[in-house]
Design the sequence.
């Protein structure tokens, strides 16, 4: 009897505290919106937690901005980089965008690394006249919006790149595709396959696009074996690809079939999860391979070391995005506001960096996908080894 | 007096319904308005848990899966340009989930507790997998859902969600006070008890799941409409687990508990975010909170409600008049039996067997109209088994006729509705109902407050506005009898009604039981061990021993019978 | 088709082992242990964290088992203290809360990167063109061992007798002077350790995602129910059968999409059959 009375008193107290706190917070927000003019607030929406996690891009951008702040900022202004977590679900992505745009009053979003925020937030961005710049897009909305300009190739173009590489450079005739059922990605993949067929005139020996993201792929791999596939291109997050190639190795298929993976596999976690099964796999890098010894990476390595961030493909993507933003915005004459940032990007000249195969440009168009180049690597004895010397462009 | 307070409550609810959206839209900054949209949506999902688990006692771990069905349905309707527009789509989306709710309810007819939880969990993971295979309609070619034209802004959309929540909450509130909702509560307490009241357990569970699926699906459709598309992650099994915890913690069976759940779902993560903690720790807090609530036994809102009810009761107790003296007679349904006439109960060759144990062997029994017939015998003789078989809980051989109808193929509910009512040795009254609600549920017909109060007072049951949970065990036994009487039965089976009563109360009860046939027009089969009660009110007695009838006839003769004395009464007993 | 069926034995053995663990837990605690796989996964992931720091896998695995045992023991403490005589519905709600807690904390504790869970036995042998892993054989051997030990303990030892009494009538057992609190916590400790052993053997076969591994409890429940939560041999057989069915279904184009629904269909079919006679709530 006493227990519930105490419990309900406690909860009533908690509730009133919550309401008071809410009121205070809501009021304090509008106060802080009129921030000091010397800070540039930049937003970022990434799938930091949740089912499909992609936090690395935002960390790479964060490292760049921290380093930048320690070395003078942008034209003397410090950067405040706000990373919002969308937890991989649509409602949180919408809330995160609203928070950044309406509450934090960001001048732009940079290096977002989310699995679904583009298609959900594009109308908010259009209404607020804010740009989502140089993100690492995953869903098809990222490559189909007037307000979003990704810095990466994207999973669909990457698939087309891999298939083209298999046919043009590796000279395979029987190429297959085994893709898991990623929500919203299927149509983009299908379009990429059609584009590939049109460009190369080849057809797939086997196309399975409904593998379970979490189940055992063995049965499908055996079908690839009986179809005589020489090369199999797949797609998906690193964890999935690791399990996939392990299953293939368990069936002794990695000796007879060449597996081609997107940039998500270009990550140490893939190597450690896949172990020796990964040997021989071909992996696509959408940016300059971070394991290479090119001098172009020196500055990035320095920044990452100073900020204690590991060097990796996704981190590098975020770094590149942040660098693009800083360089373009530093060219703005006058105050740096949302309007001036948007204007600068719509009228920018292409920005070349040795870290990317194509120059990045945002421009006035209705859709943006500037990066269509990759370099290839393979895995030997548990290490990444670079295969291509020049950029492979489609 | 009652009407004034009901009117006051209605006005304050309406005021709240209008004040909340005004406050949100006009005082909160834009980001908070966006955030608030989630509150009525998750409040609705919590409400759906409240209906199924809170009220009907069936554990459901798949409410967000029903929400997903609603979301995917409205997406499909959008892509295929189904005529009717958004509001029609919203209702249709809700209806799309109802067949699935009934499908999940099917195992609920046979399973309880952890087994049912396992089924709903399997349903949730199955839907998880299927959502990944079947992309949200329109997401592949960016055909997004549009918000209805009157509610396009975030503030407008919040108002839409709020209106939908208020409408649904009101509908659920009325449903919960109707006999459907009272039957839910009875099922949560005891399925046998509910069936014995003549209420179908199956239909109670079906309606609960159907309503729960409908409400959750509408919430899912709104969720999809908010962002224009839906992703499987928003409807994942973990979300269903979380909303289950929140709903149980706050008592989402009550409307205010559901609203609180929605608010907490929004505020707690935001607060965590403010103090720099990751907002997915909210689920940790909810998990710990629900364990605390389960240990204490009462959800947050249930605690308030009971406290309020008790305060109200104390206020009313001062004003309430003393119970009116028993006066009119209650008319039974159909023709009123006369004292002479065909027997009300005829049992012929009744045989009940449990495995290799024969509990009843060829029992013959007749109960005359408007009489009290005693059934006595040592423990294990088969008396309760007999009552169980007459009321339908136990399969039997032989025939049982009540008022000329063969009960052979009838279920418990059917027999109860045919006029056979019984009480139980074990208390099966639902503690959360008031006496009046329980009597109304048992009556199954339109019954006036006056008649209920009268019947209750006659037998000595508590006053109609008492909460059953606040009464003592003895009063509840009398309440069961009162409930059976309110149903105007033909045959009333009383299973040891005087157990645990003092001698004075036993005699008083015996006196009342003697008056029942004349007042209520029914016959009674009375199982009792207390011989003073038996000899005070029974006109005929049947004696059972080891499942066989060893004596039957007028009271005095039977109680003086040698065989009966040897088997049961003992040599010392002398019947006055 | 045959190769699809044989390839399903791998995951089927995993379901079978988890089902046996569930039955052990049920017969010793009286609770259907929904968080079993989640507890085991926590132990496994902790082991991988240590492994990332360079410790040898056997040591990490041992630590993981101990950790899982402690987590389960904590649940046992909560149940023994407040929920010993609670209704089944209430105890089930507590196990749901525990599952939620483990989920919510796993994200914080482990992030979501791919984890390397080394198999304890590598390599395999070929059957009809399909390679069957030695790990699978190990799983089946462990399964048989556990089942045999359970039958022995429950039927022939005093501990088994106490546990049977405890799960049926806890208060009565307590009145007999038996320290039920200790037994309850001890049993939960063991079920936690068992779940971790099972997950260590099973996890390498599946994606190293916490959700995937924790919800392996669903097909495990389906298999356990085929054994009516009592018969470990039937449950093991059912687990393997479910794996085989999943493998076969995934290759039939027209119904391959419905593979996630297989445990649900099995559970419903089994329950509706075995419970067809039971109309009424046993307790009330």
Sequence:
């Amino acid at each position: 009897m006493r227990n519930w009375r105490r419990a309900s008193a406690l909860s009533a107290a908690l509730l009133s505290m919550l309401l008071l706190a809410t009121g205070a917070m809501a009021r304090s927000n509008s106060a802080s919106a009129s921030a000091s003019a010397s800070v540039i607030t930049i937003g970022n929406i990434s799938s930091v937690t949740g089912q499909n996690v992609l936090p690395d891009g935002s960390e790479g951008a964060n490292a760049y901005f921290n380093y930048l702040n320690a070395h003078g900022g942008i034209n003397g202004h410090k950067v405040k980089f706000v990373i919002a977590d969308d937890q991989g679900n649509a409602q949180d992505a919408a809330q995160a965008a609203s928070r950044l745009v309406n509450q934090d009053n960001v001048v732009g979003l940079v290096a977002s690394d989310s699995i679904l925020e583009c298609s959900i937030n594009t109308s908010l961005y259009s209404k607020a006249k804010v740009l989502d710049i140089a993100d690492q897009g995953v869903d098809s909305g990222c490559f189909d919006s007037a307000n979003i300009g990704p810095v990466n190739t994207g999973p669909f173009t990457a698939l087309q790149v891999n298939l083209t590489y298999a046919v043009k450079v590796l000279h395979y005739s029987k190429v297959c595709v085994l893709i898991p059922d990623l929500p919203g990605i299927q149509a983009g993949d299908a379009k990429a396959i059609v584009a590939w067929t049109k460009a190369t005139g080849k057809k797939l020996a086997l196309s399975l696009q409904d593998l379970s993201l979490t189940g055992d792929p063995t049965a499908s791999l055996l079908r690839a074996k009986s179809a005589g596939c020489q090369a199999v291109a797949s797609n998906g997050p690193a964890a999935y690809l690791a399990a996939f190639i392990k299953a293939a190795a368990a069936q002794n298929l990695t000796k007879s079939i060449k597996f081609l993976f997107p940039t998500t596999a270009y990550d140490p976690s893939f190597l450690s999860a896949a172990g020796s099964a990964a040997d021989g796999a071909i992996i696509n890098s959408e940016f300059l391979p971070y394991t290479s010894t090119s001098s172009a990476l020196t500055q990035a390595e320095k920044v990452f070391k100073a900020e204690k961030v590991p060097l990796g493909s996704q981190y590098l993507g975020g770094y590149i995005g942040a660098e693009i933003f800083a360089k373009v915005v530093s060219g703005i004459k006058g105050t740096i506001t949302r309007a001036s940032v948007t204007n600068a990007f719509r009228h920018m000249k292409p920005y070349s960096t040795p870290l990317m195969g194509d120059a990045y440009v945002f421009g006035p168009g209705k859709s943006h996908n500037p990066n269509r180049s990759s370099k290839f690597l393979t895995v030997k004895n548990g290490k990444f080894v670079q295969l291509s010397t020049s950029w492979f462009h489609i | 007096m009652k009407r004034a307070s009901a009117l006051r409550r209605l006005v304050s609810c309406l005021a709240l319904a209008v004040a909340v959206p005004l406050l949100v839209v006009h005082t909160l900054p834009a980001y908070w308005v966006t955030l608030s949209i989630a509150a009525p949506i998750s409040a609705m999902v919590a409400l759906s848990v409240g209906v199924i688990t809170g009220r009907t006692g069936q554990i459901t771990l798949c409410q967000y899966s029903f929400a997903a069905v609603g979301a995917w349905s409205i997406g499909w309707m959008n892509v295929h340009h189904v005529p009717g527009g958004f509001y029609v789509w919203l209702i249709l989306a809700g209806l799309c989930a109802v067949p699935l709710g009934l499908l999940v309810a099917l195992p609920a007819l046979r399973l309880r507790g952890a087994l049912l939880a396992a089924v709903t969990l399997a349903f949730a993971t199955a839907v998880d997998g299927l959502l990944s295979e079947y992309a949200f309609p329109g997401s592949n070619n960016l055909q997004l859902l549009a918000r209805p034209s009157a509610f396009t802004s975030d503030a407008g959309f919040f108002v839409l969600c709020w209106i939908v929540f208020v409408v649904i909450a009101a509908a659920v509130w009325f449903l919960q006070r109707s006999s459907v909702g009272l039957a839910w509560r009875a099922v949560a307490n005891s399925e046998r008890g509910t069936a014995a009241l003549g209420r179908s357990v199956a239909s109670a569970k079906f309606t609960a799941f159907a309503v729960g699926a409908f409400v959750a699906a509408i919430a899912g459709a709104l969720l999809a409409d908010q962002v224009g598309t839906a992703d499987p992650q928003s409807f994942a099994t973990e979300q269903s687990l979380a909303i289950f915890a929140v709903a149980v913690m706050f008592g989402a069976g009550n409307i205010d508990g559901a609203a609180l759940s929605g608010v907490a779902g929004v505020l707690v993560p935001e607060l965590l975010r403010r103090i720099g903690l990751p907002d997915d720790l909210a689920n940790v807090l909810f998990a710990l909170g629900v364990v605390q609530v389960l240990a204490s036994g009462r959800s947050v809102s249930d605690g308030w409600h009971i406290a309020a009810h008790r305060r109200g009761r104390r206020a009313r107790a001062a004003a309430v008049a003393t119970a009116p003296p028993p006066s009119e007679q209650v008319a039974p349904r159909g023709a009123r039996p006369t004292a002479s006439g065909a027997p009300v109960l005829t049992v012929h060759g009744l045989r009940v067997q449990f495995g290799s144990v024969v509990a009843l062997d060829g029992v013959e029994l007749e109960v005359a109209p408007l009489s009290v017939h005693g059934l006595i015998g040592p423990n294990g003789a088969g008396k309760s088994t007999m009552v169980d078989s007459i009321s339908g809980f136990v399969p039997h051989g032989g025939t049982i006729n009540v008022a000329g109808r063969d009960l052979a193929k009838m279920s418990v509910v059917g027999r109860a509705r045919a006029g056979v009512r019984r009480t139980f040795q074990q208390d099966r009254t639902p503690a959360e109902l008031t006496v009046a609600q329980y009597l109304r549920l048992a009556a199954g017909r339109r019954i006036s407050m006056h008649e209920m109060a009268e019947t209750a007072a006659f037998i000595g049951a508590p006053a109609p506005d008492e909460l059953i949970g606040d009464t003592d065990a003895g009063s509840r036994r009398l309440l069961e009898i009162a409930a059976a009487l309110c149903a105007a039965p033909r045959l009333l089976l009383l299973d040891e009604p005087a157990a645990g009563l003092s001698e004075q109360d036993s005699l008083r009860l015996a006196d009342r039981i003697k008056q029942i046939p004349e007042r209520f027009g029914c016959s009674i089969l009375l199982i009792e061990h207390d011989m003073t009660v038996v000899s005070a009110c029974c006109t005929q007695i049947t004696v059972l021993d080891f499942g066989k009838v060893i004596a039957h006839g007028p009271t005095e003769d039977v109680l003086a019978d040698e065989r009966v004395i040897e088997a049961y009464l003992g040599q010392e007993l002398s019947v006055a | 088709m045959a190769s699809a069926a044989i390839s399903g034995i791998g995951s089927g053995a995993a379901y079978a082992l988890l089902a046996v663990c569930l039955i052990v837990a049920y017969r010793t605690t009286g609770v259907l242990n929904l968080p079993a796989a989640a507890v085991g996964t926590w132990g496994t992931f902790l082991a991988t964290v240590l492994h990332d720091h360079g410790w040898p896998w056997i040591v990490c695995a041992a630590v993981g088992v101990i950790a899982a045992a402690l987590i389960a023991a904590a649940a046992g403490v909560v149940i023994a203290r407040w929920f010993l005589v609670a209704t089944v519905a209430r105890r089930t709600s507590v196990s749901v809360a525990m599952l939620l807690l483990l989920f919510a904390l796993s994200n914080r504790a482990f992030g979501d990167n791919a984890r390397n869970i080394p198999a304890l036995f590598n390599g395999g042998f070929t059957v009809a063109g399909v390679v069957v892993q030695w790990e699978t054989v190990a799983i089946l051997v462990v399964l048989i061992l556990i089942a045999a030990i359970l039958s022995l303990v429950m039927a022939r030892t005093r501990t088994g007798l106490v546990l049977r009494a405890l799960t049926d009538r806890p208060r009565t057992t307590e009145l007999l002077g038996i320290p039920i609190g200790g037994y309850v916590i001890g049993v939960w400790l063991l079920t936690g350790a068992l779940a971790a052993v099972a997950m260590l053997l099973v996890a390498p076969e599946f994606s190293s995602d916490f959700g995937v591994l924790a919800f392996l409890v669903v097909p495990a429940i389906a298999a356990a129910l085929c054994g009516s939560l009592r018969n470990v041999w039937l449950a093991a057989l059912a687990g393997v059968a479910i794996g085989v069915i999943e493998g076969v279904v995934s290759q039939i184009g027209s119904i391959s999409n419905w593979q996630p629904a297989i445990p649900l269909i099995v559970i419903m079919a089994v329950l509706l059959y075995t419970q067809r006679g039971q109309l009424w709530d046993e307790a009330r």
Notes: Chain C has one domain: 2-274. Chain C has a mean pLDDT of 85. The first helix of chain C runs from residue 2 to 29. The beta strands of chain C are 124-127, 130-133.
